[in-house]
Amino acid sequence: MTARLRLQPEALGLGMTSQRVRDRLIERLRAGGIVDERVLNAIRTVPRHLFVDEALATRAYEDTALPIGHGQTISQPWVVAKMTEALFSGGQQAGGAQPKKVLEVGTGSGYQGAILAALGLEVYTVERIGELLRTARKRLRALGLNVRSKHDDGRIGWPEYAPFDAIVVTAAAPALVEALSAQLAPGGTLVAPVGSGSGQSLLRLRKDADGVVTQDNLGPVVFVPLLSGMLD
Ligand code: SAH
Questions:
Q1: N or C: which end of the chain has fewer CB within 10 A?
Q2: For this UniProt entry, which segments traverse the membrane (predicted)?
C-alpha cells in the first residue's frame, strides 16, 4: 500500500505567504504609524512574494528590505507605505487634488510601481539596470498591472510625459535632483531620500498652485544610491 503524504500548505512553505501572514504585516505597518487605509489595502492585496526570488518568498511579508540582485533591494514595506502615503496626504494638505499621474525613479523589483498602479494611479517608472527592468515588466504584466516603463537614467525624469502629479524617487542622491522637481505639476508632491550612506532623510517637496515649493523632512531612511548612466 502506498502511503499518501498530504502536505499542508505550511509544510510547503506556502503558509508564509498566506493572507494571515499578510494581515500581520498590515498590523505592523499600522503600529508603525501608517494610517491611510487605501495604502494599507494596496499592500494587503499586491503579492510581494512575487517580486522577490523564489528562495526569498517566505520572507516577503516581513517588514524588511530584501536583495533583488545587482546589489539592489526591494524596499522595506514600511518605507513603501510611508512614501505612498506621503504622495496622497501631500496633495490634500497643500489643498491640491489627489494625484493621478506618478513618476517613479528606480523600478527595481517593480513592487512600488505595482502598489501605485493598484491604487489606480497612472504609473511611469524608469530603471537604469536593464535586467531588473525586464524582470519587473514580466511581473507587472503577469499581474495585469498597467505600468509604463523605460530603461534610462531616471535623473532626467521622463520629460515626454511631464508634468507629474507625484514623483517618487527610490534611490538616494546627495541632494534633490533639480530636473525631477521641475517635472512636478502645480499642486504636486515629490518624495525622495536625500543624503549619503547612513545619513539619509526622506524629503517631501510640495509645489503649490502658484508653483511655490515647500519642503519637509519625514525622517531617517536607508536607500541604495541613485547612480548615473545605464547598465544592460
Ligand atoms: N522601487 C523599487 C526599489 C528598488 S531599489 C522596488 O520597489 O523594488 C532602487 C532602484 O533604483 C535600483 O533598482 C537601482 O538600479 C535604481 N536606480 C539607481 N539609480 C538610478 C537612476 N539614476 N535611474 C533609474 N534607476 C536608478
A1: N
A2: none
Joined grid coordinates for residue 173: 542622491
CATH number of 63-221: 3.40.50.150
Residues of the chain with pLDDT under 70: 1-14, 90-96
Q: Which atom of ligand 1 is nearest to the CA of 132?
A: 13
Helices 19-31 and 77-93, packing angle to 10 deg: 50
For the beta sheet containing 200-207, the strands, ordered from the edge strand earlier in sequence to the opposite edge, are 147-151, 122-127, 101-105, 164-169, 184-194, 200-207, 213-221
Q: Where are the domains of the chain?
A: 63-221
Which residues, in sequence order, are bridge partners of residue 147?
123
Choose which residue among 105, 176, 177, 230 to substitute to test ligand 1 binding: the one with the highest number of ligand atoms within 8 A of its C-beta.
105
Q: What pLDDT does residue 5 have?
A: 61
Q: Is the peptide bond before 47 cis (omega within 30 degrees of 0)?
A: no
Residue 172: what pLDDT? 97
Binding site membership of 129 for ligand 1 (Cβ less than 6 Å): yes
